[in-house]
Design a protein that fits this description.
Chain A: It catalyses: tRNA(Gly) + glycine + ATP = glycyl-tRNA(Gly) + AMP + diphosphate. Chain A: It is found in: Cytoplasm. Chain A: This is Glycine--tRNA ligase beta subunit. The complex is a heterodimer of chains A (696) and B (305). Chain A is α+β, with helices and mostly antiparallel strands and 696 residues long. Helices cover 48% and strands 14% of the residues of chain A. Chain A is built from 27 helices and 18 strands. In chain A, the strands form 5 sheets. In chain A, strands 1, 2, 3, 7, 8, 9 and 10 form a 7-stranded mixed beta sheet that branches. Chain A has a 4-stranded antiparallel beta sheet with strand order 13-15-16-14, sandwiched between helices. In chain A, helix 9 crosses helix 10, helix 12 crosses helix 19 and helix 15 packs antiparallel against helix 16 (427-435). Chain B is 44% helix and 21% strand. Chain B has 9 helices and 11 strands. Chain B has helices at 7-20, 40-43, 92-102, 165-173, 189-207, 210-229, 233-252, 258-285, 294-302; strands at 24-25, 52-61, 77-86, 112-116, 119-121, 126-135, 138-149, 152-153, 159-164, 182-184, 187-188. In chain B, a hairpin with a 2-residue loop joins strand 7 and strand 8 (152-153). Chain B is globular and about 55 Å long. The interface between A and B is large, with 44 and 39 residues.
């Protein structure tokens, strides 16, 4: 016969974003517990609300599977005495296993025969095993853990009740002073305590108590009610998935309702209205069929529709107070000029150990010039674009000190763009102000404009360099200033734009800027952690490549030369991936790797020109001619061309090695030959550290 | 609603309710402070092993929030109703909901939610886990299980319930501006606090003597440190509160540069942390008199040294 097991932990309100991951964790832990305990089951179903995490396990076996186990005893020569009788050791061993000497048999292990007995262990019953579920519950880990009362025990929120039922029987255990029982709690205000007769009654028994414990079902109910409301009013209600998830985990019994606000607030920018509704009040906002924002909102009550008008009125009042504030800021902010705000940035600290935001603006402004100058001809900015970039860089953080961003910090950049336009800036400048924050997540959209992209890179590299120089290098999961995201933003923008930027060239721009405007680097001379910073940025490209399923050795190869640009690294990875299956691939790489290995023997101070008069054979001459040809056009070769050119050297390299001894006694000749190899190595490194490729 | 509770009725109701739950009714502490948490009845009493159950109204001064009495919801000084219970009772949430019922707020008629809001006051070395309580979308209460105060682990854990009296009353009396609240029959909040709001705002933003305030901060700090050394916890703490308020006045005036800001906060935090340690030591010297369980008391007294 199979059984049903129910486990429910009743808690004080769990943070909404923690509910779903926690119940998944519980499911996984219960599943591995049952597997370890050899207790068969069919399925684990999860239930979760703000006040409970629960799993129902169906098809639970009567008992653990039985096992037969061999227990190893003494060696045969000890188990039997001279006459072949059981020794004391053997008798003791069998007794210790609860058996008789007659049960002993011998088996060889690593050349020696040992005494063994076969033990049969009957499985324990499900009820016995399941008391161990306590450890499953106490082992749970949450993002924030707390203590309560007089206990040292930590959990996500205080535990208030425990249900553990195997069919009709309570599985007894307790956590702190809370004993398991069959009593679960209904909705805080609409339900009562209810005794579950059978585990199978869950979650139906809770519905009468105004609790929809099935999170999926609860979410569907919300979505259906929203749809009905939208259809009735011909609205388009914007249902953001993460907001829906959050709201779903704030309620046990959802009732969707709508409210309105005065038309006059529609003059406030949409972004502000939406932030007020969505982020501050957890409301869904409403559009008309043409996509225009309407003065309505949709929310979800944790309860039924009784007295709903009071709830609507209360929510309307709160939203109105917020919008009144926003309207005030929107009006007040426009009474000042951008120059006023920029002036105030002198008083705003970017970071205590770094300096003011105003200084950052000045650094970034100077850096933008260097960055723009580094672009290829095809990307060179026009005079107008240059002016726009300079203007944007001079003011791009001004909105941080406006009242609106003070109140709605998530609108930084968005308000900057809006106010810049209102205050007469060119659209290109305004857009760059907003776009410099992009991308604002790992997969987030990139700046669409060139000015925005340049400002974004300059701002990010300045931040990274500033924090590294001030000694605040991210470690492990500790990255409070999101520098990883900013580094990956730089890489992604450079790749998308095809700009020839490398971690080293960015670093050099910082150094150059430091020399030009050293006063702005008082606290952050960019001389500390320089290598760490280059590695840190390249690591982001490596992450990006591995996310795109490039092989580890290809990633190692292309990212092995810090001076190569991100775009070249990326292209090299693609080229290697494409060619690695070809027949001469291995031979080409091996020839070049041999060169790289030997070239390392040339001391850096000896790098210099190859003297042709020291050549002793034709292979040397041939190789030199071929290499010189490639060298002369190397700067203009595409990745694919460079790869082909390097490959074409293979026969020459091989005959060179056949005919030429590198490490000869004569120092002049030896150095000359190493210099020859070093030239090839330098060309190879333009492509990547090919010696890191795995061609075995 | 014809029989709306006045603000003082609301205070009386909360006092009556929490006194029945075993809370001592304390009075507002007579040194300026930014929040009820900073009253010694919370900040100091939350630390150490002794039980503590108290409720009180705390006028809280936040100079930077002053709006000359012109903003309907922002005030230089507002009132908090503070409940602190240590160890946190198992039914503290239910007690809180009952207190709303006592105020005539029937949860059946509203939407009441506990929304995650973990509280932190780095300037006093405090951290807690809890919620803001939403009544039909409005935050009316901060609900916290203290985990750390003055840099020390809070053990047993104290639960703190802080009602924003003006907000709650605006809801109960259904007014849009706090100045329209009825404090007592026939007397409006604005009648009492309108003038001080204007004057304090004017003082804090325009007239305060910065030079004097900077000097006062240093003087108060020196005195606090000296009294910490003397083991005189309460006088020392009064001076820390004075430092904190003086800093807030300077901050409102924009007199503290951004660089200095962090430095001032750290100075206050360091004092608060030392006081927390000295307080526990002094209570121990007194034999943790609030612990009535002799066995536990003796055990705790023997701990450590």
């Amino acid at each position: 016969m199979s059984h049903t097991f129910l486990l429910e932990v009743g808690l004080e309100e769990i943070p909404a974003h923690v509910v779903t991951p926690s119940v998944q964790q519980l499911k996984e832990r219960v599943s591995s517990f049952l597997e370890e305990q050899r207790l068969d089951f069919k399925e684990i179903v999860t239930f979760s609300t703000p006040r409970r995490l629960a799993v129902k396990v169906t098809g639970v076996a009567d008992k653990q599977s039985d096992i037969e186990e061999e227990a190893k005893g003494p060696a045969k020569k000890i188990a039997l005495d001279k006459d072949g009788n059981w020794s004391k050791a053997a008798i003791g061993f069998s007794r210790g296993q609860g058996m008789k000497p007659e049960d002993i048999f011998f088996k060889e292990l690593k050349g020696t025969e040992y005494a063994y007995v076969k033990k049969y262990i009957a499985g324990q019953t499900a009820a016995e095993i399941l008391t161990g579920i306590k450890q499953v519950l106490t082992a749970m880990v949450f993002p924030t853990m707390m203590r309560w009362g007089s206990n040292d025990f930590k959990y996500v929120r205080p535990i208030r009740w425990l249900v553990a039922l195997l069919d009709k029987e309570v599985i007894p255990f307790s956590i702190l002073n809370i004993k398991t029982d069959r009593l679960t709690q209904g909705h805080r205000f609409l339900g009562t305590e209810v005794a579950l007769a059978d585990a199978a009654d869950y979650p139906q028994a809770l519905i009468a108590q105004h609790v929809i414990a099935d999170a999926v079902q609860r979410k569907q109910l919300i979505e259906e009610q929203i749809k009905t409301l939208a259809a009735k009013n011909k609205w388009h209600i914007v249902v953001d998935a993460s907001l829906l998830e959050e709201v779903n985990n704030l309620v046990e019994f959802p009732t969707v309702f709508s409210g309105s606000f005065a038309d006059k607030y529609l003059d406030i920018p949409d972004e502000v209205l939406i932030t007020s509704m969505k982020d501050h009040q957890r409301f869904f906002y409403v559009l008309d069929q043409a996509g225009k924002l309407l003065p309505y909102f949709v929310s979800v009550r944790n309860g039924d529709s009784e007295h709903l008008e009071k709830v609507v009125a209360g929510n309307e009042k709160v939203l109105t107070a917020r919008l009144e504030d926003a309207a005030f800021f929107y009006h007040e902010d426009q009474q000042k000029t951008i120059a006023d705000y920029v002036e105030r940035l002198k008083k705003v600290m970017f970071h205590d150990k770094i300096g003011t935001t105003y200084e950052k603006l000045q650094r970034v402004q100077a850096l933008c010039q260097l960055l723009a100058a580094s672009l290829d001809k095809k990307d060179t900015l026009t005079t107008a674009e240059n002016e726009e970039l300079q203007r944007a860089a001079a003011i791009y953080k001004f909105d941080l000190v406006t009242g609106m961003v003070g109140e709605f910090s998530e609108l930084q950049g968005v308000m900057g763009e809006r106010y810049a336009l209102l205050m007469g800036e060119k659209p290109e400048v305004a857009t760059a102000i907003r776009e410099h924050y992009l991308p604002n997540s790992a997969e987030g959209v990139l700046p669409e404009t060139k000015i925005g992209a340049l400002l974004a890179i300059a701002d990010k590299i300045d931040s990274i360099s500033a924090f590294f120089s001030a000694g605040m290098v991210p470690t492990g999961s500790n990255d409070p200033y999101a520098l990883r995201r900013q580094a990956s933003g730089i890489v992604r923008i450079a790749l998308a734009r095809g700009w020839d930027l490398s971690a080293v060239s960015l670093q050099e721009m910082i150094m150059c800027n430091y020399q030009n405007v050293s006063g702005l680097y008082a606290n952050i001379k960019p001389v500390k952690n320089v290598e760490k910073m280059t590695d840190f940025i390249i690591e982001r490209l490596r992450k990006l490549l591995s996310g795109q399923q490039f092989d580890f050795d290809i990633i190692e190869t292309v990212s092995g030369v810090a001076a190569n640009s991100f775009i070249k690294m990326y292209q090299a990875a693609e080229i290697l991936k494409e060619h690695q299956g070809e027949t001469d691939f291995k031979a080409n790489i091996e020839a070049l790797t041999r060169v790289l290995r030997l070239a390392e023997k040339l001391p850096a101070k000896e790098i210099g020109t190859v003297k042709t008069d020291l050549f002793e054979n034709k292979a040397e001459k041939d190789l030199f001619t071929a290499v010189s040809q490639i060298e002369s056009k190397a700067a203009n070769l595409s990745g694919e061309e460079l790869y082909a050119a390097l490959g074409s050297l293979r026969p020459l390299i091989n005959s060179y090695f056949d005919e030429t001894m590198i490490m000869v006694e004569d120092e002049k000749v030896r150095l000359n030959r190493l210099r020859q190899l070093q030239k090839i190595a330098a060309l190879t490194y333009r492509f990547g550290a090919l010696n890191k490729l795995n061609v075995k | 609603m014809s029989n709306k509770m006045s603000l003082q009725d609301i205070i009386l109701t909360l006092q009556h309710f929490w006194s029945k739950q075993g809370c001592m009714l304390m009075q507002a502490y007579d040194t300026e402070k930014g929040a009820g948490t900073m009253s010694p009845y919370t900040f100091l009493r939350a630390i150490g092993p002794e039980p503590w159950n108290a409720a009180y109204v705390e006028p809280s001064r936040r100079p930077a929030d002053g709006r000359y009495g012109e903003n309907p919801n922002r005030l230089y000084q507002h009132h908090q109703f503070q409940v602190i219970m240590k160890p946190s009772p198992a039914n503290i949430q239910d007690l809180y909901l009952d207190s709303l019922r006592a105020l005539g707020i029937d949860p059946h008629e509203h939407d009441i939610r506990f929304v995650e809001d973990n509280w932190e006051n780095p300037s006093m070395g405090c951290a807690g886990v809890g919620w803001e309580v939403w009544l039909d979308g409005m935050e009316i209460t901060q609900f916290t299980y203290f985990q750390q105060v003055g840099g020390l682990e809070v053990k047993p854990v104290a639960s703190e319930v802080t009602y924003g009296l003006e907000r709650l009353s605006s809801y109960i009396q259904d007014v849009n501006s706090v100045f329209d609240l009825e404090w007592a029959a026939g007397v409006k909040y604005g009648d009492i606090f309108g003038e001080p709001e204007f004057e304090h705002s004017k003082y804090a933003f325009e007239e305060s003597n910065q030079e004097m305030l900077f000097k006062l901060f240093d003087t108060y700090e020196a005195e606090a440190k000296k009294q910490i050394k003397n083991g005189l916890v309460h006088p020392a703490y009064d001076y820390v509160l004075k430092c904190s308020h003086t800093f807030n006045l300077l901050d409102a005036r924009g007199a503290v540069s951004v660089t200095e800001r962090a430095g001032y906060l750290a100075r206050i935090r360091n004092m608060a942390k030392s006081i927390a340690k000295v307080f526990v030591a002094e209570r121990k010297k007194l034999g943790f008199p609030l612990i009535k369980d002799e066995k536990l008391r003796n055990k705790l007294l023997k701990e450590d040294k």
